[in-house]
Amino acid sequence: MLIFIIASVQSLDIQLINLQQVYYSVPITANNFTYNLIVDTGSDTLWIFGKQNNRRKYYECNQCQAIMQKRLDYGLGSIYGTQFTQLFEFANRSLNLSVVEVQIVQDLDSLIADGIIGLSKQYPDSDANLIDLLYNHKIIDSKQFGLLLDDQICSVNSLLTLGKPNQSNYVGQLQYINTTRSELWNVYANSVFISNTTHQQMLESNKQLILFDSGTSKIMLSSKKFHSLHNIFNDDYNLNCEQVKHNYFHELVCHFNTQFPHLILNINSQLNLTLLPQDYISYCGYNYFLQYRCYLNFQNLDNDDEIILGVVFLQKYYTHYDLQTQQVGIAQSYYYKRDKINLTQLGNQYNYNMLYLSLMSIPILILFMILSMNIIKWRQNQDQISQSNEGNHQSRGQEQEMEPIKFSVQSAR
């Protein structure tokens, strides 16, 4: 009797680590070193910091032949290095992948991971990208991957799903959107508007280009659209926002108000992607002047008119990327719970810390002022004593000089 054993190919779930609620990294091993690489749907290259970058952990290709020199430019910063083919261990499998050993870094030195693994829609070298290799080696069941991102810091609940989607990762059904012809995961929205219970304002009434980018932490808008959003928040919703420069970008900081509106991206007649205030407010808290302010997850970026939906958005929506059909599937994340948070609870621990720090700084400031005044008063007293002693010394000197003159006059007479 013949028994046929058919090995089934399924999807893989790889744990991701949430780095400071900003990026998500995946482990990959080469030369007995394990590197944590940021999963970036907005780029196409795997690169790791090299020895020249003075990092505790760096990549150095052993007995490799260089393929080419490569430069990558990001929205902020760039890298330059040498591209090699390296044997990596990933998900307990051995794969030959193209990797750039980075020699020169600009504005990316503070990156908390060891490098980046790009998972864009198209790759410059289709024979060496991760998803194709996993599929060709019959490790995964389809040329697809998905991102389930938990917003708890340093948690290991987040997943990179390689292959077909796992229905336990999201709520309801995936809604698939056709992507554009670009190399990135771009789609078009029919319109973008700001809305609350009383009225709504259009941020964009025509087609709006959108990018799903796990390598970006916040929601990036063109400078023109960023200014328009600022004006809508102030003129129509009385949020008293101001633009604050942070590093290379401007961010919105607003007075606290329970009437923050929703931001809605209308993809088509069946799909609206909605960001609640709980989604786009980073935190609300007291600043050093005891002013209560809300810090928003919007930043400006000088680019073509594109909205980049970063980690803030991807924590709310599970996204699944299909390389064969060139589509993105979207559904609410299984982990999403921010809609249950009251606006007044946003950043409470931060609020308490800032309030405590501010209140503690008041008596310290008063003591410093009292001490400074006492020092000034003491110095003034010392100056007065010194001047008095100097005056007494001068008067005695004058009396001593007059006496011999008096005697000499008397003797002359």
UniProtKB/TrEMBL annotation:
It comes from the Eukaryota. This is Peptidase A1 domain-containing protein. One of its GO terms (molecular function) is aspartic-type endopeptidase activity. The chain crosses the membrane at residues 354-376. Disulfide bonds join C254-C294. Residues 22-331 form the Peptidase A1 domain. It comes from Paramecium pentaurelia. Residues 386-413 are annotated as: Disordered. InterPro entries: Aspartic_peptidase_A1, Pepsin-like_dom, PEPTIDASE_A1. Keywords: Aspartyl protease, Disulfide bond, Hydrolase, Membrane, Protease, Transmembrane, Transmembrane helix. GO terms for biological process: proteolysis. Residues 386-397 have a biased composition (Polar residues). It holds the Pfam family Asp. The keyword Cell inner membrane does not apply. PANTHER family: BETA-SITE APP-CLEAVING ENZYME, ISOFORM A-RELATED.
